[in-house]
Write a structure and sequence with these properties.
heterodimer; A: about 270 residues; alpha+beta; Uridine Diphospho-n-acetylenolpyruvylglucosamine Reductase, domain 3; Enolase-like, domain 1; 3 domains; 4-stranded antiparallel β-sheet; 11 helices; 12 strands; about 40% helix; about 25% strand; globular; B: about 150 residues; Ubiquitin-like (UB roll); DNA polymerase, domain 1; 2 domains; 5 helices; 5 strands; about 15% strand
Chain lengths: ~270, ~150
């Protein structure tokens, strides 16, 4: 269980960031569900509840998702169920239970770069940017790859386009963490293959995605891309599975993901 | 620090510690239906409603519910009894330790979903663990309560 010395609920982002920067162990609170499983010693906990960051808004060309939006809001949002074959709601659908998803937030899930995150995998397959208070707006992939810096994730931007997407995962039981998760997407002829819960954080299989984008999408090429994804990414071992198991699963799920996207594409044409 | 909350339709002011969780606050004020078990936010025993949404009270800091409406099973006695009788008739009450949280989530589901399918019921209740029943009796009880007609 974490401990905290003080808890503040600032009225604006500037104040929140100032308090965050004041001391090394000052921390932004998300839903607290994952935080409470650790033993972090927090100086001042910063609660963003008063900043009105819980929203899903459609803007010209983008969907904005506020940092304090719950995963349950993602799951049940009518428009998000339509966009990208509902890949975002599908990705959070099996995370623990409804009560849990009502509590945990998009901002904490993304900012923490959790390896087991289902949401990051799906977001990474879309054209997603994050907006940090200090760091500004950047591609999600760049955010995931940059070293950790103290900042506040304000919102996530998802570009609205005709991207088709699929999300797959394997869990040992319905509400457990994923042993591995995969998201595949296609915009025009460009494919993106993402693998998460490796168990390290989600990553794009760049070479496999590029090869698939150049090919004719024969069964052999699809199987080749799935194999390439499994070979170019690294996998680790933890209580849920060995690296070898994850690598084998990766190949199967990537192939299924590609087939699902192709099917979605054909259904639309 | 002080919080003002409406607990089961009654406005109260409570002193809470900054790192106190809602489940502990509720239990310290006599709402002993709120159980604590897993400590990993996954068992659903501590389920209460905050502004009519079912949440895990073991994972919400009490300070964060200031100004909100909290409902425990003590606040919905009529609905809880109606469902509990069906649960008992189906032999699904067993030790009863998980029942308050389970019932709160069943009632939340009834308020949220219209004519849910069996799969939707199972999915909605995935976050409520029970180590006695094997879930089949509970599922029968929920379907009876909701009037689900087998298709």
């Amino acid at each position: 269980m974490f401990t905290l010395v003080d808890l503040v609920q600032p009225d604006n982002l500037a104040e929140a960031y100032q308090i965050l920067s004041d001391k090394r162990n000052n921390t932004i609170l998300g839903g607290c569900a994952f935080l409470k499983m650790g033993s972090k010693r927090i100086g001042t906990a910063i609660d963003l509840t008063n900043l009105n960051l819980s929203y899903i808004r459609e803007q010209a060309g983008f969907i904005e998702i506020g940092a304090m939006t719950s995963l349950r809001e993602i799951e049940t949002h009518t428009q998000l169920r339509e966009y990208f074959n509902g890949v975002l709601p599908k990705s959070v659908h099996n995370i623990i239970g409804v009560q849990f998803r009502n509590g945990v937030t998009v901002g904490a899930s993304v900012y923490s770069k959790y390896g087991f995150s289902d949401l990051i995998t799906a977001l990474l397959a879309l054209d997603t940017e994050v907006e940090l208070y200090k760091g500004g707006r950047m591609l999600l992939v760049d955010f995931l790859n940059k070293p950790h810096e103290k900042d506040i994730l304000v919102k996530v931007w998802v570009k609205k386009n005709n991207r088709k997407a699929a999300y797959l995962n394997l869990r040992k039981s319905a509400s457990d963490y994923a042993v591995i998760n995969v998201a595949v997407s296609k915009l025009d002829d460009q494919w993106t293959i993402v693998v998460g819960a490796r168990p390290s954080k989600a990553a794009i299989a760049v070479r496999a995605s590029a090869a698939l984008s150049k090919g004719k999408l024969s069964v052999e090429e699809i199987e080749g891309a799935a194999q390439r994804a499994a070979e170019e990414l690294s996998f680790g071992t933890n209580a849920r599975g060995t690296s070898e198991y994850r690598k084998a699963l990766c190949q199967v799920l990537v192939k299924r993901g590609i087939m699902e996207v192709l099917h979605a594409n054909q259904s639309d044409n | 620090m002080q919080i003002k909350v409406t607990i089961n339709d009654k406005l109260v002011t409570w002193d809470v510690e900054k790192d106190e969780f809602l489940a502990d606050t509720l239990r310290s004020h006599g709402f002993l239906s709120v159980k604590k078990a897993c400590e990993t936010s996954c068992c659903g025993l501590c389920t209460v409603w905050v502004d009519d949404k079912s949440v895990l009270s073991c994972s919400i800091l009490s300070l964060r519910v200031h100004g909100k409406k909290i409902t425990t099973i003590e606040g919905v006695p009529k609905e809880a009894e109606e469902f509990a009788r069906i649960l008992t008739a189906e032999g699904a009450e067993q030790c009863g330790f998980c029942s308050p949280g389970f019932i709160m989530n069943v009632l939340a589901m009834k308020n949220e979903l219209v004519n849910p399918s069996e799969n939707e019921i199972i999915h909605y209740l995935t976050g409520n663990l029970c180590r006695c029943t094997g879930y089949m009796g509970q599922l029968r009880a929920v379907k009876t309560y909701l009037g689900v007609v087998e298709g």
